[in-house]
Amino acid sequence: VLFVAVDQLNRGTECMELDERVDLARLNLRAAERAIEYAAFVQAEQYLEAGISMLSAQMWIDNYDICLKLHSALAEMKYCNGSFDKALEIVSDVLSHARKLLDKLRVFSVSIKSLGSQSKVQDAIDDGFDVLAQLGEPFPKTVGTLTIVKEMMKTKMMLMGKTDDVLLNLPRMQDPLKIAAMQILCSMLSLTYMCRPQYVPLVAFRMMHLTLRYGC
Questions:
Q1: How far apart (Å, rounded) are the C-alpha atoms in residues 182 and 107?
Q2: What are 99-114's pLDDT values in tens digits?
Q3: How far is CA 48 from CA 97, 141, 204, in A?
Q4: Nearest by Cα to 25 from 60, 57, 58, 63
């Protein structure tokens, strides 16, 4: 019913006032989210683009919240549908208009995965480490044996005394910055394995540190 209603309303936008178009943009976002649940990514992309088209030229000023949600979701769908260049363009748009770090979290991962999918692995890694630094999880510029050993010992100390039951019953991670950092680290694990293998143990250790401190 939602899809049918939104499709019909989208055909009559020329007769709508601006506030009605904003309401329809929200409906298109709901339709896109429902389509994503069904893995209908092409249809979701169409609804998101329709929703953006409903907004004014000053959308980032007049309708910031809905504009942010539509663009962030559209970047994800462009990535899922293989339009990596377009995904990066939308990511850049979001990053240039986002008012705070929390508003950028959703597109950070899209940027890194899109670069990786274009075989721009070094750029993806550089972007990943830059984002992690913004999220409070910086990495050293260079890595040697001593750095790896120190992080390994730190990890062993954090695990000391923790039984399997304790680890299996860790609380859910709640901090949005740390959740975003964990998502980036998951992408970085495979990327560093391909191009900067010396960072692989550091990425793995950091993921363990975040899990032990903030939950899983």
A1: 14
A2: 999 999 999 999 999 9
A3: 18, 39, 36
A4: 63
